[in-house]
Amino acid sequence: MTTEQIISELTELFEQHGSDDYYGEPVSQLEHMLQSAMLAERAGADDETIIAAFLHDIGHLLPSDLAEDHMDDYGRVDHEKLGADWLRERGFSEKVAQLIEHHVNAKRYLTFKHPAYFDKLSEASLKTLEFQGGPMSANEAQAFENNPYFRGILQVRGWDELAKETDLKMPPVGKYLEITRNYLERSK
Questions:
Q1: In terms of Cα–Cα distance, which of 139, 165, 141, 138 is closest to 153?
Q2: Residues in Cβ contact with 130 at an 8 Å cutoff, skipping those fewer than 6 apart
Q3: Cβ contacts of residue 22 below 8 Å, gap of 6+?
Q4: How many whole angstroms separate alpha carbon 82 and alpha carbon 79?
């Protein structure tokens, strides 16, 4: 696929589903994704990490009408893997894919490692945690800590948790689509 075809696909997904509610939270899907990207950018993250923060929930926007593909009213089952694979197929780096694919594992890890983190989760995040396997086991946590992108994954998770603010001035989606376009062009 060409860069423009990928950007067009992303734009279409945002146009079709970006204004949908972000499952049990006071923001839309697109607002949540933009806020995540803004937080990554403000933290001085590199382009791949900003893109991962921006697209971390792209799997929720991929079409499916099958009931078994959904966590009741809380989005797509395995949205993190679906999104990461979808982006891999389009030439995104393994770093971008890993940061996205494991942001749910980061929630599972943090609820195991830091019980106070569990107490801070929103009601919707607690509900999805049930669908996602609950807190990790000690063995799962140890294996997760060995992921070469471990620190970046935790960062994306942190921005994901914070990206639920209402009435926040948002940059246009085009800003992060342009960062994505430039990244894809450089990656060729």
A1: 141
A2: none
A3: 28, 29, 31, 32, 57, 164
A4: 5
Domain containing 38: what range?
3-187
pTM for this predicted structure:
0.90
Tally of domains within the chain: 1
Give the mean pLDDT per block of 10 residues along the chain (188 residues).
96 90 79 96 98 94 61 61 94 97 94 91 81 91 97 96 90 96 93
Instruction: Give the number of C-alpha atoms closer than 13 A to the C-alpha of residue 173, restricted to the C-beta side.
Output: 17
Radius of gyration of the chain (CA): 16
Distance of CA 91 to the CA centre of its chain: 17
Helix (H) or strand (E) holding 92: none
Q: Name the residue type at position 32.
A: H
Look up the CATH number of the domain holding residue 158: 1.10.3210.10
